[in-house]
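Lab notes, practical 5.
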Amino acid sequence: MSGIQLAARFHERFPAIRVLMLSMHDNVEYVTQAVRAGASGYVLKDLPSSEIVQAIDAVLAGKTSFSAGLAARIIQVQTMQAPIDRLTPRELDILDALAQGLSSKQIAQQHGLSVRTVETHRLNMKRKLDIDGQAELIKFPVEYRRV
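Output from the prediction step:
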């Protein structure tokens, strides 16, 4: 289980527990996943120990804490990137096929994938686009004129 999956499990089972992710991954996508999983902070392992302790104290006090460079990049990416730009080319292909009314099985056959892989892509797209339901996912490309 990854740290992000563990954070999600903690958040689901013990919502009062505050989670601070300590990671080597200097990647905006990981930070976004961690926050969606319920993490209250995300700091890099290579920070000076005094900054890590400050982050722990902040999260314990009910605040959030993010490595400074990551926080700036997250804001930049979030403000500049359109939702559709967050998807990979494969996800865009699958999204178009969904909008055309194809089932996961049909998409899998069309693209030489397993049904499970298509379902994983669907989950990833919903997460990246901050979409809850299947109908919203199918409606999304129509609204963004991809079909």
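Observations recorded by the TA: The CA atoms of residues 56 and 127 lie 27 Å apart. The chain has eight helices and three strands.
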